[in-house]
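Budget justification aside, the reviewers requested a transparent look at the raw inputs and outputs of the sequence design task funded under Objective 1. We therefore reproduce one unedited record. The lines immediately below are the C-alpha cells for a 324-residue chain.
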C-alpha cells in the first residue's frame, strides 16, 4: 500500500520531470529492443536486424531529449522512471516475452510504439500549460515517426522471402516443441487408457470405481510420458526445443486424453456414463486425426484409418475383457 501512495500522478510532474521520464523511457525501450535482437539473432537474423535498427532509433531520441534537457534545465537529469508515475504505460518484463512466438514479439514491439504515442497525445490534451503541451506533442510526434521508421526498417531488412522463411522456421519450431510431443501424449492417453477404463467399467459396472481407475491411469500415464519426453532429448542436437516445454506438452495432453473418457463415469448411471464416454472417445480420435493432418501433414484418410481403427480395436478389447 505504501508503494502506491508514493507514486506520483503525471499531472503533478514538472516539465523537467516529464523530460527526464521521457529520457529514461527511451533508454529502457532501447534495452528491450536489443534484448529482442539477441534473443532472435541465432534463428531469425533478419528480424534481429530490425530490432537493432529500432534500438538505434531509440538511442537517437534519447540523445535529442538529453540535448533538450541540457539546454533548458542543465546537466543534472532527475531520476524518474515509469514505475514512479501512476497511470504511466508499463512494459512487460523481457523474460515474459522471450517465449512468445516470433509474430507475437513483432506485435509486442509495434504495441510499444503505439502505447508511447497514445500516452503522449493524451497527456498533452490534459495539460493546460502551452510549453508542456508542445513538449508532449513533440514526444508523440517522435514516437509516431519511430513507428513509421520501424516499418522502413522491416522493408529494408525483412523482405517477403526472408519473412516467409522466418515464419516457416517459427512454425516448424512450434510443431517440434509443442505439437509433436502434445500429439504423441494425446494419442497415448486417449488410446492406451481405453482398455483399462472400459474393462473396469464392464467388469464392475461401478461408475465410481471406473472413474478412479481412469483417473489413476490418466495421471500416471501423464507423469510417465512427461518425464520420458523431457529425459529422452535435451533438444540441443535435434532442435526440438526445451525439454521442459516438451515434457509439459506431452504430460498434460496424455492426462487430458485419458481423462476425457474417464470423467463421464462421475455420472452414477452406468449406461448413461458409458454412452457419453463412447461419444467422447469418438471425438477424441477424430480430433487426433485432424491434428495429424493440420500440423503433421498426414493425409486425413490415412490418419483417420490409423487412429480411429486402432482406437476402436483397443476399445473393443477392453469391453470384451471386462465382459468376459
Amino acid at each position: 500500500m505504501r508503494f502506491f501512495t508514493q507514486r506520483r500522478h503525471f499531472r503533478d510532474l514538472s516539465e523537467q520531470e516529464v523530460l527526464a521520464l521521457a529520457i529514461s523511457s527511451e533508454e529502457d525501450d532501447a534495452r528491450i529492443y536489443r534484448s529482442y535482437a539477441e534473443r532472435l539473432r541465432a534463428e531469425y537474423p533478419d528480424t534481429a536486424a530490425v530490432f537493432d535498427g529500432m534500438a538505434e532509433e531509440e538511442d537517437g531520441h534519447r540523445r535529442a531529449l538529453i540535448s533538450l534537457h541540457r539546454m533548458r534545465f542543465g546537466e543534472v537529469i532527475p531520476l524518474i522512471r515509469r514505475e514512479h508515475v501512476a497511470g504511466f504505460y508499463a512494459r512487460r518484463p523481457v523474460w515474459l516475452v522471450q517465449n512468445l512466438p516470433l509474430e507475437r514479439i513483432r506485435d509486442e514491439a509495434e504495441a510499444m510504439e503505439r502505447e508511447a504515442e497514445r500516452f503522449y497525445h493524451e497527456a498533452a490534451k490534459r495539460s493546460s500549460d502551452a510549453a508542456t503541451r508542445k513538449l508532449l506533442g513533440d514526444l508523440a510526434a517522435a514516437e509516431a515517426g519511430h513507428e513509421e521508421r520501424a516499418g522502413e526498417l522491416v522493408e529494408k531488412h525483412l523482405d517477403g522471402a526472408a519473412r516467409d522463411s522466418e515464419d516457416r522456421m517459427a512454425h516448424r519450431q512450434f510443431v517440434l516443441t509443442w505439437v509433436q510431443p502434445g500429439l504423441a501424449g494425446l494419442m497415448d492417453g486417449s488410446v492406451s487408457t481405453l482398455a483399462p477404463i472400459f474393462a473396469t467399467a464392464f467388469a464392475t459396472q461401478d461408475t465410481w470405481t471406473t472413474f478412479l481407475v481412469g483417473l489413476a491411469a490418466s495421471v500416471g500415464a501423464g507423469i510417465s510420458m512427461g518425464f520420458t519426453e523431457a529425459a529422452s532429448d535435451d533438444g540441443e542436437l535435434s532442435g526440438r526445443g526445451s525439454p521442459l516445454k516438451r515434457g509439459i506438452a506431452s504430460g498434460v495432453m496424455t492426462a487430458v486424453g485419458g481423462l476425457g473418457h474417464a470423467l463421464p463415469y462421475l455420472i452414477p448411471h452406468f449406461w448413461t456414463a458409458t454412452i457419453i464416454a463412447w461419444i467422447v472417445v469418438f471425438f477424441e480420435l477424430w480430433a487426433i486425426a485432424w491434428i495429424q493432418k493440420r500440423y503433421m501433414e498426414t493425409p486425413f484418410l490415412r490418419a483417420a484409418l490409423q487412429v480411429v481403427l486402432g482406437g476402436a480395436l483397443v476399445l473393443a478389447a477392453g469391453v470384451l475383457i471386462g465382459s468376459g
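The longest strand covers residues 8-9. The longest helix spans residues 160-192. Computational costs for records of this kind are itemized in the attached budget.
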